[in-house]
Design goal:
This protein is of the alpha+beta class. The chain has two domains: 45-223, Lipoprotein localisation LolA/LolB/LppX (outer membrane lipoprotein receptor (LolB), chain A); 227-344, MucB/RseB, C-terminal domain (Phosphorylase Kinase, domain 1), CATH 3.30.200. The chain is built from three helices and 22 strands. Strands 1, 2, 3, 4, 5, 6, 7, 8, 9, 10, 11, 12, 13 and 14 form a 14-stranded mixed β-sheet that branches. Strands 15-16-17-18-22-21-20-19 form an eight-stranded antiparallel β-sheet. Helix 1 packs antiparallel against helix 2. The longest helix has 40 residues, at 3-42.
Length: 346
């Protein structure tokens, strides 16, 4: 090879290295910009007062359900929703003032309250950390318009298989999230929330988030619920269940409440990876072989007998351990939910 040929090869090699370095720097910069936009949307953007029409759709058992409502949003999670759809919910009004969630049901002219302590900043920070740990963020090169406003388009792609992906449209000026689409692994739209006829920034009065004053409405005393938990902590009262506060792939315990399953009380542990959730229902006193419907199939979790039910995109696994019966329910793929369940068996 002549000196001239060697010089050409060296020049080409350096050009390739330079291009690779430029792409790496560009990708790194784009990632940091994406993280900044996500942070601003979760913190500053979520506290911008807004009035709008909202459409929320979700898929269940292959059927798409739709909610339409007029919404008012305040800071730190305060809101008011006046329902139009579904038809059976028309006229329902739901409010949250940072302390109590009130639901007015016009069909029974009744008011039901639930005390939900606010945790300003705590949950926002934890959700943001979980998203960044479990999803790759990327910013679309072009801006899109939503409700006639220019938005950043942010894609959240799971780092682990078996999870849904998400796209968010975030207002360029206020960082308010104006549209979210979540897609199952097969590409089918799982959920969508979108806002139209938007007014913001706008003035909102604190009274708008209080319980509506309807003459003659039967008001029930608020039911107290436990506040959200700090992630990675199992309450000492439930240590004997053997549950882990962290579970594969990338989930952390974020909330504890109580539910009813077939008329029996169950402790409800909610896990999240920032977008996906897994509900684990725990019932005491389970012993002997599992009794499950015939449409559940037998599987094994670390050598322990368990049963799995697949219902479209909704999966469930149930097993007995330590005198408890556990049932994990999620929209993860069967393989991902089994991975979660296996990390909870010890």
């Amino acid at each position: 090879m002549t000196k001239f040929s060697k010089l050409i090869c060296l020049t080409r090699f350096c050009a390739v290295i330079s291009l690779f370095a430029a792409v790496s720097v560009s990708t790194s910069a784009d990632t940091e910009v994406s993280k900044t936009i996500l942070h601003r949307s979760i913190t500053a953007g979520s506290n911008i007062p807004m009035r709008a029409n909202m459409v929320f759709t979700w898929r269940r058992h292959g059927v798409v359900h739709t909610v339409k409502a007029r919404v008012v949003q305040g800071s730190h999670g305060k809101y008011r929703m006046e329902y139009e759809l579904p038809v059976e919910a028309n006229g329902r009004i739901v409010t949250y003032d940072g302390e109590t969630n009130w639901q007015y049901d016009p069909t029974g002219n009744s008011m039901t309250g639930t005390s939900i302590p606010a945790t300003p900043g705590q949950m926002d920070s934890e959700v943001e950390s979980l998203i960044k740990a479990n999803y790759t963020l990327s910013l679309a090169p072009e801006r899109a318009r939503v409700a006639d406003r220019k938005t950043y388009v942010l894609d959240l792609t799971p780092k682990c298989a078996g999870k849904s992906s998400q796209r968010r449209w975030i207002d360029c000026q206020t960082f308010k999230t104006l549209r979210i689409e979540t897609h199952y692994t097969d590409g089918i739209l799982a959920q969508m929330v979108a806002y139209t006829d938007i007014q913001f920034p706008t003035f909102v009065n604190a009274s708008e988030f209080k319980a509506v004053n309807v003459h003659g409405a039967k008001r029930k005393p608020p039911i107290a619920v436990q506040s959200p938990l700090r992630t990675r902590i199992i309450p000492s009262k439930y240590v004997d269940t053997g549950l882990n506060a962290q579970a594969d792939p990338g989930f952390s315990l974020v909330q504890k409440s109580t539910s009813l399953i077939n008329g029996q009380t169950a402790e409800h542990f909610l896990y999240s990876d920032g977008i996906e959730t897994v509900s684990v229902f725990v019932q005491r006193g389970a012993s002997g072989p599992l009794q499950v419907p015939s449409n559940w199939r037998r599987i094994e979790l670390r050598g322990r007998s368990a049963f799995e039910n697949l219902d479209g995109h909704l999966d469930a696994i149930t097993w007995n351990n330590r005198g408890f019966r556990f049932t994990a329910v999620s929209h993860l793929t069967p393989e991902a939910l089994k991975q979660f369940a296996q990390s909870e068996v010890r």
